[in-house]
Amino acid sequence: MTFATLGLIEPLLRSLETLGYQTPTPVQAQAIPAVLAGRDLMAAAQTGTGKTAGFALPLLQLLAMEGPKVTANSVRALILVPTRELAEQVHEAVRQYAENLPLSTYAVYGGVSINPQMMKLRKGVDLLVATPGRLLDLFRQNALKFNQLQTLVLDEADRMLDLGFSEELGNIYKALPKKRQTLLFSATFSDAIRTLAGQMLNDPLSIEVSPRNVAANTVKQWVVTVDKKRKPELFIHLLRKGKWKQVLVFAKTRNGVDALVEKLQGLGINADGIHGDKPQATRQRALDRFKSSEVQILVATDVAARGLDIEDLPLVVNFDLPIVAEDYIHRIGRTGRAGATGQAISLVCADEVNLLSAIETLTRQTLPRQMEHDFEPEHRVPDTDASGQVVKKPKKPKKPKTSSSGKRNLGKWVESGEASAPEPSIKPVRKVPVFNTGPRKRKP
Ligand code: AMP
């Protein structure tokens, strides 16, 4: 199969040739003809599967072939994305695909001055990439009209909901023309997303190119167990031992990012950090320097987890596990993209066992564990498996005591009925419920 057989026009085929895309990826093979035929889409695609081209190529073709010329302050196609970085990245991809077409494209997002964006929108743009908050600001200030809107794309829709954009999405939805094409893309699909899809989509074609909620199988994943306080030391040890060249590291909090970057820089290691407290320009600069290998280690909060496309990124390290299990898939999706192989290592301490269990349940796999010599944890990380149970092993039983009735307390597993035995040497074992990570209700 080629892009030409999917029905793409020659100016797009030329752009793809320049970019070196030879064969459509599975999501592209399914999405492109459907979008060209005017269908609404609900697409579950893994990160790194080429979904951006899957919606952008046919969208650009429709804009070039159909519809009126764009008028002042109008947009003809809107791509909504959850983060500023993703807005830049999707726009960059769109710009490259549209290279040979007479279409205007632009990206708007918060964290930067709104005035240049208002100026730019005056003439109208054919295709606008936007984050929801800034889009609404522009709309409310009359810098944007939706009367010409033909197509709406919701990219990383689940993430938009996770980030609390559901009210913004509702308000945008109310402002859009009812007659339009809508494409909903998401790496993971929750019940909330399906509800959103029910409201926004009209007889959508469902595309599912990969098993739901499974990370790319080209990514080798494992866990190194360690005590919390020794994580920085272990990271530095692994970095040196593995001679890591380029690594994206995820930490839970902004302070965590800053502390690790400071520690690494203090040791003369070439590291930088990005998180939501940093100005947009600083974040973009750090990312660009990391992409061009000027920076060896980029430490980030989950703001950087979505959609970032870093060519040939070999390694992602979860310095802390994410609070929301779905974020694990997005984080490790930064490596192993477009069929390349990658590695994802998670440093896990005993406190994080429920988070680990939730990830294993979601991805339906038990992550292999390793311990690093000299870093064996004092606080053991309880066993977990993909069934969603944390298996709490009891402490080693002391020498069995003999009860007054002469019955010996034999077990690790003391049933509640036996609790009347005098002074049982160990407590009953309880299976601990898994940390609930979101609206998805999954049976173990
Ligand atoms: P995405 O999942 O849209 O973020 O794309 C992941 C990466 O795959 C990007 O670097 C794209 O440029 C690249 N890519 C997308 N489609 C193709 C294709 N058909 N052939 C080669 N590379 C592709």
Would you mind describing this structure in some detail?
This protein has 444 residues and is α/β, with parallel strands linked by helices. It folds into 2 domains: 4-208, 3-Layer(aba) Sandwich (Rossmann fold); 219-391, Rossmann fold. The protein contains 14 helices and 16 strands. Helix 2 runs parallel beside helix 3 (51-65), helix 3 packs across helix 4 (84-97) and helix 6 (132-140) crosses helix 8 (166-175). The longest helix is centred in the N-terminal third of the chain and has 15 residues, at 51-65. Residues 21, 23-25, 28, 48-53, 309, 337-338 line the site of adenosine monophosphate.
Give the structure's gist in a few sentences.
The chain is an alpha/beta fold.
Keywords:
444 residues, alpha/beta, Rossmann fold, 2 domains, 7-stranded parallel sheet, 14 helices, 33% helix, disordered C terminus, binds adenosine monophosphate
How do the helices and strands follow one another from N- to C-terminus?
HHEHEHEHEHEHHEHEEHEHEHEEHEHEEE
Broad shape: globular
Bound molecules: adenosine monophosphate
Instruction: Tell me the structural class.
Output: alpha/beta
Q: How many DSSP H or I helices?
A: 14
> Radius of gyration, rounded?
25 Å
Write the layout of secondary structure elements.
Elements: H1 10-19, H2 26-36, E1 41-44, H3 51-65, E2 75-80, H4 84-97, E3 105-108, H5 115-121, E4 125-130, H6 132-140, E5 151-154, H7 157-162, H8 166-175, E6 181-186, H9 191-200, E7 205-208, E8 219-225, H10 231-241, E9 247-250, H11 254-266, E10 271-274, H12 280-291, E11 297-300, E12 315-318, H13 325-332, E13 342-348, H14 353-363, E14 369-370, E15 383-384, E16 390-391
Parallel strand pairs: 1-6, 1-7, 2-4, 2-5, 3-4, 5-6, 8-13, 8-14, 9-11, 9-12, 10-11, 12-13
Antiparallel strand pairs: 15-16
Helix pairs in contact: 2-3, 3-4, 6-8, 13-14
